[in-house]
Specification:
The complex is a heterodimer of chains A (112) and B (113).
Chain A (H helix, E strand, L loop, with lengths): L2 E5 L2 E5 L4 E8 L3 E9 L6 E6 L5 E4 L2 E5 L3 E6 L8 E9 L8 E2 L3 E6 L1
Parallel strand pairs in A: 2-11
Antiparallel strand pairs in A: 1-3, 3-8, 4-5, 4-9, 6-7, 7-8, 9-10, 9-11
Chain B lengths: L4 E3 L2 E4 L5 E6 L6 E7 L6 E7 L2 E5 L7 E4 L6 E5 L8 E8 L7 E2 L3 E5 L1
Parallel strand pairs in B: 2-11
Antiparallel strand pairs in B: 1-3, 3-8, 4-5, 4-9, 5-6, 7-8, 9-10, 9-11
């Protein structure tokens, strides 16, 4: 069964303090790994798609990396506006033809 | 690109009542998905459409739930005889095809009294 586990559940950082969020996954053939950002009361906002081990994507202070078993979302010199819940999701080749399997998310708080 | 639109944003109803939510996807997106999200959890897949055809339903989608996408554009999700456990955020997403990222609306929050 496809599964996604995110850690930590919550992370508190000071502004400028870099860190990483982890997403471990098991899937019957990875078709894509997705990172989303979700603000309170809002829907998930798409950030990145990664398709194969070794792939990296960057956007402003965020960088996503992928291995065969996990993905990391690195946050460099975060600002308070980066505070949100970050969700990881996978899509596999087996079973479902398109739905995403999500983790529970990491709630990031960045204090000024 | 106006994004995925969902209405209403918040629905409060009494247990046993029927409710209907609407989703307008990004124009020309063939695929439309419904998810449910409860507090502290990630979204859970309910069902999806390719154009007007409903191609997959999750085990979470009991007989009280029905979804339609009559002309391959907007979609509706109806819940009959609502129960306390139906309280959640109902999210809609759309994508151009199977492999492209899904883009989400801001959801409809359902509260059952």
């Amino acid at each position: 069964e496809d599964q996604v586990t995110q850690s930590p559940e919550a992370l508190r950082l000071q502004e400028g303090e870099s860190s990483s969020l982890n997403c471990s996954y098991t899937v019957s053939g990875l078709r894509g790994l997705f990172w989303y950002r979700q603000d309170p009361g809002k829907g998930p906002e798409f950030l990145f798609t990664l398709y194969s081990a070794g792939e990296e994507k960057e956007k402003e202070r965020l960088k996503a990396t992928l291995t065969k078993k996990e993905s990391f979302l690195h946050i460099t010199a975060p600002k308070p506006e980066d505070s949100a819940t970050y969700l990881c999701a996978v899509r596999g080749y087996g079973g479902s033809q398109g739905n995403l399997i999500f983790g529970k998310g990491t709630k990031l708080s960045v204090k000024p | 690109d106006t994004g995925v639109s969902q209405n209403p944003r918040h629905k409060i109803t009494k247990r046993g009542q029927n409710v209907t939510f609407r989703c307008d996807p990004i124009s020309e997106h063939n695929r439309l998905y419904w998810y449910r999200q409860t507090l502290g959890q990630g979204p859970e897949f309910l069902t999806y459409f390719q154009n007007e055809a409903q191609l997959e339903k999750s085990r979470l989608l009991s007989d009280r739930f029905s979804a339609e996408r009559p002309k391959g554009s907007f979609s509706t999700l109806e819940i009959q005889r609502t129960e306390q456990g139906d309280s959640a955020m109902y999210l809609c997403a759309s994508s151009p095809d199977r492999d492209q990222p899904q883009h989400f609306g801001d959801g409809t929050r359902l509260s059952i009294l």
